[in-house]
Design a protein that fits this description.
heterodimer; A: 408 residues; alpha+beta; ten-stranded antiparallel beta sheet; 63% helix; disordered N terminus; B: 370 residues; PH-domain like; 3 domains; three-stranded mixed beta sheet; 12 helices; 14% strand; rod-shaped
Amino acid sequence: MPDRSTQTPHCMDIVYRGKMLPFFRLMLVNVALTVVTLGVYRFWAKTRMRRYLWSAIAPGYDPLEYTGNGVEKLLGFLIAVAFLAVYLGLFQLFLGFLGLSLFNASDDPAAKVFHLVLAQASLIAVVPFLFYAQYRARRYILSRTRWRGIRFGVDPDAWGYVWRALAHWLLTILSLGLLLPRQTFWLEKYKIDRTWYGNAQFVQGGSWPMLYRGMKHLIIAIGIMIIGGILIPFGTTLLGIPLIVLGVIWFIYGYFHYRVTCFKLLAAHKKLDNTVGFIANARTDKVFWKTVFGIFFAGLSTVIALMVLGLIAITLGFDNFDLDANVTGAMATLDPFQIAYAIFSYLVIMGLGSVFYSIFVSQPVLAHYVTTTMIENPAALMDIQQRSRDEMVEAEGFADALDVGAAI
Amino acid sequence: MFDQGVSAKFFDGQSARSHSVLVRVVDHENGSALLIEQDGQEPRHWPTPHLRELRHQARDEGIVLRLDGSDPARLIIPHGPAEDIIRKISPNLHQRHVPKSMQRKLLFWAGGAIASVVLILLVILPALSGQLAKMVPLSREIAMGRTAVEQIDKYLGKSKTSLVCHNEAGDLAVAKMITRLTSRANLPYQLNVRVFNYDLENAFAVPGGYIVLFSGLIKAADTPEEVAGVLAHEIGHVVHRDSTRRTLRTAGSAGIIGMVFGDFAGGFAALAVTKQLINAQYSQGAESSADDFAHELLARAELPSAPMGVFFDKLKKKYGGKTGLMSHLASHPELGKRADKARAASTVSLDSFRPILSAAEWSDLRKICK
């Protein structure tokens, strides 16, 4: 990509101002409260996290603002549960009945495939809603995002997204992944063309074949794996196995490369109000290594925490678990205090693991994407006017209930 | 009170333009307010009780103020003495307010969500799966039952050899018991009873009329009538199509409770307990009605149900009964109660009934796995 210069005065830099320690404190409080409230606090926890992260992203030194609140998220979740519980129950029961009525114990492949499909009944019931939920979650999040006091917004066309997403996924799977760029591009375009900043509309330009550039490393990785696979039957296992391992690692890198490249190319072809453009200079190697080292440090920190909890257990004399006893017998001999401590430790570890991941992986990667992106012709932003508020009573309830959507 | 005014940044919420403004504290309607002056614009008054501060911010250029309610305007005052004064004179900077209408909506939908989950899990799914179970074709149920028995056989026997016990005399004894129990009951199923060589005092029924007795159960029984009691109980499960019903109900309820608690650590524990509680309530109901069915079946076959009670007492003595809180989580009702009910239901005298098996046949049955 031509470097259309970092130096031109017509570009606005985006600053990232989040720091590790304050973010760690915030996430720690979030996890503690979520555990104590048996999960109810999760809606407020996510809101607090977003307020922090949004305010850390500052295009032209003016930070974004997240205006969502926990109460509306809880309300949206309750609405989604009221609807989904009945829908899921009935749909899954119907599929279960179908499975039993057409049960066929024979070994022919058609029967096996049929049962495999029915075994995923809840998945089949849920998939269309996953896309629906994702689109709605994006709409909710952007409607609660402001910059310089002006709201973002998304048009409410979730069902159009659902059938397109289903069709594109099907095509991608049938083409063994070769049409992935087509899916990535058109779904992005569908979303971007319905996105607004104030009264200005975003447009996604470009074309889908341009994203094939991002597939480079994925294709190399598959090539390596194929060569490795061919070598093994010829008695060269010693060379074949390492090649396959190399191919797998390369594939993971290729996945990162695809995501970063798509982000850059799609950003470069986005326009706001036909005048404002974007330049993204994110780098695959940076994102990859930040993730790898981040996971390493998050894992290390979690292991240290686990060791501390284990040491406490030993000091308290909890090291005499009788694992040979059968389940009922073992339960009878365990001190309830020990059981409570075990559950407590489990919760602490799970919680700390996610906190460490946020501070060692999520935030550094986000910071890299943010700080390597620039806005072209920012002067045109001045004239953008406010848009009206998107009420959205259901908030992102479907995404919360189905547990999909952004990690952020 | 920064009489000279402090310069600040202001976003009016109308356009994306950043404005430089001068801010002062003035008296306003029996209180104080911030006076925001901007070139060429009407000055604005922000009364101090209405000021709110944006919280959980990573930015550090000063205090960010807004008005309560939905006004999108933002005022950013740099750190310094002015900020300290504003903090001192603004009583409600961190107040959060949930409007009455929102509270009503929350209550309404919380009720709706709870009603919906309770209704589907405890009313609709059990009722519908009961109805649908009757509509599953018998041939399918039998095919499924056969597969299930084969799989359990492989699983328990660790795939080595089949656990099914067979010998002519033993099979005859089993057949005789079934005939005695079912000849006067009009069963929709052809029963298929097997004995597994497995050292556990238990028995189970799967769809399609398949019943499996473990050899451990026969060993633990002192009379053939004790075994007959358990067999009658399993026949109850067969007639009620309990395992088909359970399969359907489980398919329908998949993921619903998980949805409520969400994907987080604490939800894991809450989820497991809630699931077990709901399953136990159903399964205890199914067990009780299988017991009732067994009492009736035994009475029709002119057999006492008291030996069934004797057998339950033995199990209770060996494993101990669950009482109190834990009993609500168990899959079966409390053994003592089941024993008492079996004894109370007995209509046939223990002294004058015709035994289900002769002494020789009983000995054959006990040797079926040898």
